[in-house]
Amino acid sequence: MSTPAIDLHIQCCHICPITVATNYSTALRYHNTVCSFLDNMDLLFVYGTLKVSQPNHNQLEDKENGKAEFVGKGRTVLQFPLVIRGKWNIPYLLNCPGRGHRVVGEVYCIDRTMLATLDQFEGVPTHFQRLSVAVEMDDGPVLVEATHQGTHHLDKCYIYMKDTFSEEDLALPYLDNFDTNSNGGLHYIPLHERQSGEK
């Protein structure tokens, strides 16, 4: 199974106005994977509290939310600013490619029910926006052959990012791998521990 070449022309935010242009021409091969790139299944890249051993991973484990199967670990092909902000110490990936780091995360194959559940949980479209990124895989059952020799890419994974942010947000320290237990004391405060329902 193959996909056509994809030209991505990404205009960065108005604060750091750069344009990133890249071309991917990939042939996907797969084995022993639950989703097998079937209809009504999507790939999702998570980098924050939805990861394994993080406070909101139960959202992916709860069968009532839909289906989610772990595919593998990886990192974004492009650099993005991953910051922690607000009184709840929420991790945000800012949609400003070319700044920050290539961010570490996990890829899941999810059904449309889980996607709708997570959209609501993440406050799409007002709090977070669901966009797409390319991911270089570290491991997992999905094998991806790419034009980049020696690398394994997934061209399109959904991701929850912030599309609007301030210069102050961009001035925050950038992370490459979120872990609520090792962020310099900036522990994420889950919803049930907050005094209000604020996200």
UniProtKB/TrEMBL annotation:
Catalytic activity: epsilon-(gamma-L-glutamyl)-L-lysine = 5-oxo-L-proline + L-lysine
Enzyme Commission numbers on file: 4.3.2.8
MF GO annotations: gamma-glutamylaminecyclotransferase activity
Coiled coil residues, start to end: none
Residues making up the signal peptide according to the UniProt record: none
Keywords from the UniProt entry: Lyase
Active site: 122 (proton acceptor)
Gene3D superfamilies in the record: Gamma-glutamyl cyclotransferase-like
One of the record's GO cellular component terms: cytosol
Pfam families assigned: GGACT
Family: Belongs to the gamma-glutamylcyclotransferase family.
Purpose of the protein: Catalyzes the formation of 5-oxo-L-proline from L-gamma-glutamyl-L-epsilon-lysine.
Name listed for the protein in its UniProt record: Gamma-glutamylaminecyclotransferase
